[in-house]
Specification:
single chain, mainly alpha, two-stranded antiparallel sheet, 8 helices, 2 strands, 61% helix, disordered C terminus
C-alpha cells in the first residue's frame, strides 16, 4: 500500500467535491440552485440540522421551484467537524463588530463539544442564546452573499464543464477522434 493511499481523509478534498457536483445528472439551474442553497445553509449556525433543513426545504418549495437535493446536501458540508469551530468563530467575531459580544474562543469551542443528544441540544441552545445575536449578524453578512454568488459561479462552471467535456481532436491523418477531458 502506498503512502498516498494509506492517508486517512477526514473531509472530502474540495476538488473531488467540485467534480462530484459538476458530474451530477440534472439541469444546470437545479444543480447551481441546490449548491447555492447548500452553501447558504452550511454557513448558518444550524449544526446537526442542515441535512434535515435541506430535505424539508425541498418538500416545502417543490410546488414553486426545484433544486438538486444532492448538490445541496454536498454543499452543506462546508461546515464539517474540521471547519465548524473556525467558521462559526469567524462569523461570531464578524457579528461582534456590529452588535458586540464577549465570548472567548475557548468558551466558544466548548459550546460545540457534545457526545449525546442532550448535549447536542444544549449546544444548539447555547449557540442561539449566548452567541445568538452576533453569530446571526455575522452569518447574515457572509451566508447571504456567498449563497447568492454561488449560483452564478456554479452555473458558469457547469456550462463550462459540460461544454468542454468532449472535444474533437484532429489526428495526423486528418481524421477526427473524440477525447474526453474528464479524468
Amino acid at each position: 500500500m502506498s503512502a498516498e493511499s494509506s492517508k486517512i481523509r477526514l473531509a472530502p478534498q474540495p476538488r473531488n467535491l467540485l467534480r462530484s457536483l459538476l458530474m451530477l445528472d440534472d439541469t444546470e439551474h437545479a444543480i447551481a440552485l441546490g449548491t447555492a442553497i447548500g452553501i447558504f445553509l452550511g454557513l448558518t449556525p444550524t449544526v446537526g440540522l442542515q441535512m434535515i433543513t435541506v430535505m424539508l426545504l425541498s418538500v416545502i418549495t417543490r410546488r414553486f421551484f426545484r433544486f438538486n437535493v444532492m448538490a445541496a446536501l454536498m454543499a452543506v458540508y462546508i461546515s464539517n467537524p474540521i471547519t465548524i469551530v473556525p467558521l462559526y468563530w469567524g462569523l461570531y467575531k464578524l457579528g461582534t463588530l456590529f452588535v458586540g459580544g464577549e465570548v472567548t474562543r475557548a468558551q466558544f469551542a466548548a459550546t460545540l463539544e457534545y457526545t449525546s443528544f442532550s448535549e447536542w441540544w444544549n449546544t444548539v441552545s447555547d449557540l442561539c442564546v449566548s452567541l445568538g445575536q452576533p453569530l446571526l449578524v455575522g452569518t447574515a453578512i457572509v451566508a447571504i452573499p456567498c449563497g447568492l454568488l454561488t449560483y452564478p459561479l456554479m452555473l458558469w462552471l457547469l456550462r463550462w464543464f459540460r461544454g468542454a467535456e468532449i472535444k474533437p481532436v484532429v489526428e495526423h491523418a486528418g481524421k477526427e477522434k473524440s477525447e474526453s477531458l474528464v479524468a
